Amino acid sequence: MNDQNPARRDFLKKSLALTALTLTPPFVFESMSQPQKIVVRKNIATLSDTDPDLVAYKDAVTKMVALPASDQRSWQAQAQIHQNNCPHGNWFFLPWHRAYLYYFEAICRELSGKKDFALPYWNWSSSPSIPPQYWGATNPLNHARRADATSVAQSEFIGQPVIDNILTINDFETFASGRATTQRERSTYGELEATPHNYVHGFVGRDMGTFMSPLDPIFWCHHANIDRIWAEWNENGHANSTENDWLNFEFSEFSGKPKKIKIRKLLSTYALGYRYDTQQQKATPQTINSRFILANNNRFEKITNKIAELNKPLDVAIQVSDEFITAAKTLAKQNQDNPKVLKNETNLIIDDISIPETESVCVRVFINCDYLTRETPITDPHYVGTFTFFATDHGNAGHGGHGSEQNKLTYKFRLTDTLTNLLEENIFPTDKITAQLLTLPLFGETSEPRLLTSNCKVELLKTT
Amino acid sequence: MRQRFFVFWLLLMTCCANRPVVSGNAVHPEDVIHKKFQIDKKLEALLNREEVTLRIIDLQVMNGVETSIRVFIDMPEASRTTPISNEYYISSFVVAPPHNSASSYTVRLTPKLNALKSTLLKKKELQITLVAVPLYGDNTIPKIRVADIQLF
User: Fold this and answer.
1) Which residues contact A124 (CB under 8 A, 6 or more apart)?
2) ipTM above 0.85, yes or no
3) Chain B interface, mutation test: which of A82, A91, A188, A213, most B Cβ atoms within 10 Å?
4) Which of A143, A363, A412, A429 is the 20 to 30 A CA-CA neighbour of A84?
């Protein structure tokens, strides 16, 4: 859709060139099925009755309904999570529901046995009546509703022009609802929540008009569509809030692991292991407002002509001063005690990354992990984040160069959380921070290892 | 007696036709609410900003009707029958349940404002009109109350 818009493509490429990334680690369920690749959430109206995702969804719903309410995975318990915790009318609305759907999708995978299950979405703009996939006397997706199969949602609230208009909003809080300090505080409804979201709940009616709305299986697909629009808004180049009060806010009411999730880990669908069929195949970098200033004690090591081989870590050691270690440790301690008061961040900048010959690789970044292999999980305390390559047009000048050299990329990672993990494990660095780049194949590729020529400079920064 | 009642009714209707302007405090429940902003240098500067939003503070539906709000600019005569294709229509939103509790809403004015700005700036005041419309086939006229309407 938007890929065909040259202006947007141009904008994306420029964004890529100019902005550093903060990619956050995907978190995994240790006890639940986890997809090995990016799964694709599809429009339910396009799915046939025998579509594997639709079959798995029905199967999972049937099994969840049959579970006792005391089981956290049960249909009733899942709806209760919403009833007791859901934020509305504030800026936690979008990330909370993204996490809620993510955990729900994992339960569906576990119960249906379909390891790559992807939750479908209901695109009410293109299907303003509830699609036939939700009707039928023996269909587990059927539910008592005010709307029937012939009811048509009003385009005034869900029409494509309305959504297109919402997608052009620049301000995060106007788009995604206003700032709040507590999860359930009602602040200000933004347009996405107040217009299509609120309308569709009432249009479907009955349970959907209450906080027990997840009792209706259509709830999950309605919210997947809201989530899709958020992802599209980001892909269009709009930035989420960069405030620590938002980024470090933690949700803890979901069943599954990890028990607590910070919003900053919920900002990329790709990092969470899914995308929508309307999204690009590969992640678009998220723009962040850069407020970082080089610390006086900045050190870096320049490495030339090093090759990062697939599946093997490339180590880049950075000598740091005692003052730097002390400052970074203090920050990690503050982050451990009360992340909301953080004023500074420790960051890792990986500079001059040459664009690889293939974009089908991701690079996982760790620090100071002396046992790092491709099997090291991203839950390891040394893990920092992952970056991928997108729309870099290898060999084409001007895409992704952050700096004077063309065809070079720069990635910026927040190190504070990783350093906090290391502090908690009593393995905080003493004199050296070694950035480790581990290049891995993406999208299930198993072909011969491809090389990422890495000519990288690493800087360790602390904001002032 | 009947004549007196008729005169009273006539007076009441005349008052309703000139509905009060929201001036920062809650007003009696209405289905249409107006707010006027004097166009002075401060407002002019605000209107020339890259993004202009409207904040509707503490909106309540007093009679429990499922309600949407249509927002119009410079259209004081807007009513439930004014079509949303009207040039002065901004957008609509749906009041979140529970409907008698107060909620605030942000509405972006920028696109329509940019289209109308040259005309609006020639005037002495800018008027925002909120029209409450019942939803989902209900014919009950919603009565709404707002604490304030602000421009940002």
Assistant:
1) A153, A158, A196, A200, A222, A225
2) no
3) A188
4) A143
